[in-house]
Design a protein that fits this description.
537 residues, alpha+beta, Copper Amine Oxidase, Chain A, domain 1, 3 domains, seven-stranded antiparallel sheet, six-stranded mixed sheet, 34 strands, 26% helix
Length: 537
């Protein structure tokens, strides 16, 4: 019996030591891992937090931190939020809810990760993930993120990853940029007619024409079918890929299209086979070379219809065209989240109609604008249609008009928890005045609309970090909840909600006024340091 007790004591001691060793120097997290096969979260699991750097600079996830997943009997693997690592390495991220897939695109590389699957598709080739640890959803302190294996994704995007076990730090180093080849001089050459390419099984049809209208600044990719396309943002150029599309008029090699535009320097297109990794026999790639100082998010809108794809070039707004501001009034900048390019969340309502976040946010901002104008404020919108600058430009606009407050309106989503409802208001962690503003807006908006009060939270959003004034981002409700989506689409509910936000603006500005007056009175009452010295002398 004594031997048995000794053995059990030794076993407990060894187990305790193993647990102590498992706790990494970056700390631990208590998280839930979503089980795709069961369709629900597993038990609360304690795991190790991971520090993350990119090119020597710390990366801070907005929701779930980088962490280690330790499947039973297997090595641990570092998981990171997909958008954090992919977009930091220059890749675009597309979420496909029907198949629960994340598609990463960078240049001519395409990575498809299916949540819960131990394999990934890289340029059409199936590859086993290290230790079979898949991408998946993780919940921590009520926040959710889609997490992907760090080393696999980073290395497939051309980066390198090193691990420091003493600090539990994963250091990612971006791939070295290759210089772009100089364009060859355009010299006429004698060419033989190109052989026509016929659509194959799996293709969708022909591209019948590629044309640019200088007056409307519209590039049209005309098709004889409803096209499916992907946009790949490469910084100084943008690639638009039409999947399963074949040029009706055959072309040998790359074709250049002359354009007269402040946004586009040149348009090129070429016929591809199945080499771009989309899983279709043919793809037409159209490359837009951008003028210096322009970008995809800031200066292009892409729309598709039954007859093709339209790309509209929108020149940047000059800061000389700022609206007139009455200096005797408070100035409020309103930001309708997303736009005709970024779209935001897209979910069906009870009737199956697709609802776009960018439409809901603009509708609410228009109502808020009318309320604030009637109350005597200067109001400036970052967008009043489908086109807007990028997040930095929205912030620059607010700074340029010297706004007193900034309000960004968004809608939330929680695909794995469709019952989740409620309103959040975010502020930047470095700004105490923004925290006060967030609380004022949260309290008033919930009171006016009856929305579930999820409280305020800090986040490192660009529009909160880059603005010079008190700034908040309001997540008005969850589009993934059918009942709340119905409310968000209701004009009366939007009106009540925006009346609450307007009340929060007024409450905060009164509070700021009172604090400024109190501070000024205190400074007047207190002797200065210099006067104290003179009296002592």
């Amino acid at each position: 019996m004594r031997r048995v007790l000794s053995f059990l004591f030794l076993l407990c001691l060894l187990t305790g030591l193993a647990a102590a060793r498992a706790a990494g120097p970056a700390g631990t997290l208590s998280v839930y891992f979503y089980d795709e096969s069961a369709g629900q979260y597993g038990a609360l699991t304690e795991t190790d937090r991971v520090n993350l750097t990119l090119d020597g600079t710390a990366l801070y996830p907005l929701d779930v931190p980088a962490l280690v997943q330790y499947p039973a009997g297997q090595n641990g693997r570092t998981l990171v939020p997909v958008r954090l690592i992919a977009e930091s390495l220059g890749a675009s991220v597309t979420w496909v809810p029907d198949t629960r897939q994340v598609i990463l695109q960078k240049g001519e590389s395409t990575i498809v990760l299916t949540l819960g699957s131990a394999t990934a598709l890289v340029n059409g080739q199936e590859i086993l993930l290290p230790d079979g640890i898949p991408a998946g959803v993780v919940k921590w302190e009520g926040k959710e993120s889609t997490m992907v294996p760090l080393r696999f994704v980073s290395e497939r995007l051309g980066a390198t990853v090193t691990w420091d076990n003493d600090t539990f730090t994963a250091a990612v180093v971006s791939p070295a940029e290759e210089p772009e080849p100089e364009p060859s001089p355009e010299e006429p050459e004698e060419t033989t007619p190109a052989e026509p390419v016929e659509p194959a099984e799996g293709d969708r049809g022909y591209v019948t024409a590629v044309s640019f209208d200088a007056e409307s600044q519209v590039l049209t990719l005309a098709t004889d079918h409803t096209p499916e396309y992907r946009v790949v943002d490469l910084g100084s150029r943008v690639a638009i890929d039409l999947l399963g599309a074949v040029l009706q008029t055959p072309a040998e090699g790359e074709v250049s299209l002359a354009v007269d535009s402040e946004v586009l320097d040149r348009v090129r297109y070429s016929q591809h086979g199945d080499d771009l990794g989309y899983g279709v026999p043919h793809t037409l790639r159209v490359v837009l070379d951008l003028q210096s100082g322009t970008s995809y998010t800031r200066n292009l809108t892409v729309e598709a219809g039954s007859g093709g794809v339209r790309i509209t070039a929108v020149p940047s707004q000059s800061m000389d065209e700022l609206p007139e501001i009455d200096p005797d009034k408070y100035t409020v900048v309103l930001d309708a989240g997303h736009d005709g390019t970024t779209l935001g969340a897209v979910y069906p309502d009870a009737s199956g109609t697709q609802i776009y976040e960018k439409d809901l946010t603009l509708s609410m901002v228009k109502k808020l604008e009318a309320i604030l104008l009637a109350q005597g404020y200067n109001v400036v919108l970052t967008r009043d249609g489908e086109t807007a600058g990028d997040l930095y430009e929205r912030s620059e606009l607010a700074n340029a008009v010297e706004a007193d407050v900034f309000v960004s309106i968004h809608c939330n989503s929680a695909p794995t928890v469709p019952t989740f409802q409620g309103l959040y208001t975010y502020y930047h962690p470095s700004s105490n005045r923004s925290k006060l503003f967030a609380q004022a807006v949260q309290d008033a908006a919930c009171a006016a609309s009856g929305a579930i009060d999820r409280g305020i939270a800090s986040a490192d959003f660009v529009v909160l970090r880059e603005t010079n004034m008190a700034a908040v981002l309001v997540e008005t409700g969850f589009m993934t909840n059918v009942e709340e989506l119905e409310r968000l689409c209701d004009e009366d509910y939007q009106q009540s909600l925006m009346e609450g936000v307007a009340q929060g603006v007024a409450d905060y500005l009164r509070l700021a006024e009172a604090q400024a007056a109190e501070k000024a009175a205190g400074e007047t009452a207190q002797p200065t340091a210099s006067s104290g010295v003179e009296e002592a002398a």
